[in-house]
Automatic annotation (TrEMBL):
Entry's Gene Ontology cellular component terms: cytosol; protein-DNA complex
Modified residues (4-aspartylphosphate): 68
PANTHER family the record matches: REGULATOR OF RPOS, TWO-COMPONENT RESPONSE REGULATOR ORR33
MF terms in GO: phosphorelay response regulator activity; transcription cis-regulatory region binding
Protein name: ActR/PrrA/RegA family redox response regulator transcription factor
Alphabetical list of CDD domains matching this protein: REC_RegA-like
Superkingdom assignment: Bacteria
């Protein structure tokens, strides 16, 4: 079930309604981000699935949402759409570990104000949520390197192919041995 934190006093610069739904199926990340957002003056509600998120939105539609793109029981874009049906002025940010242009466009069309790569820093999430309408948020202080983005993408495709090296190599258009060498290395910084 969803976890709700206690109310924190709003900090200067924050709007009056600081309710924030955080949806991610990675419990450790969800909890860390919830604590970090609470320290920044938000009132986070945590959910790990599409169904939990929709239930939390039905109970009280938040002013802000931070939603993982891919969840075990569905798509984060569905949550953003549902949130905007319940509260048109809500501001949502989509997080993803394996983004591409198509999903970024879909997220923006659904009403997300930004699309951030994981692991997202709480400062970047806050900046995106509080960016003025029509303005672009500042670029992240510590963006992932191109090597790290590539590595994350390869890991995701490998996972989706049920750890089948040959199938992953075929889908990525690379030689199987090249893929095996990449998989054997540690993640770049």
């Amino acid at each position: 079930m969803s976890e709700t934190s206690t109310a924190a006093p709003a900090q200067s610069g924050l709007p009056q309604d600081v309710s924030c739904l955080i949806v991610d199926d990675d419990q450790a990340f969800r909890t860390r981000l919830g604590r970090a957002m609470e320290k920044r003056g938000f009132q986070p509600t945590l959910a790990e699935s599409v169904s939990e998120a929709k239930s939390a939105i039905r109970q009280s539609a938040p002013a802000f949402a931070v939603v993982d793109l891919r969840l075990d029981d569905g798509d984060g874009i569905d949550i953003v759409n549902f949130l905007h049906e319940q509260r048109a002025d809500a501001r949502a940010v989509i997080l993803t570990g394996y983004g591409n242009i198509t999903t970024a466009v879909a997220a923006v069309k659904a009403g997300a104000i930004d699309y951030l790569a994981k692991p997202a820093d709480a400062d970047d999430v806050e900046k995106a949520l509080l960016a003025k309408a029509g303005s672009l948020p500042e670029p992240p202080e510590n963006p992932m390197s191109a090597d790290r983005v590539r590595w994350e993408h390869i890991q995701r495709v490998y996972e989706l192919c049920n750890h089948n090296v040959s199938e992953t190599a075929r889908r990525l258009g690379m030689h199987r041995r090249t893929l095996q060498r990449i998989l054997a290395k540690r993640a770049p910084q």
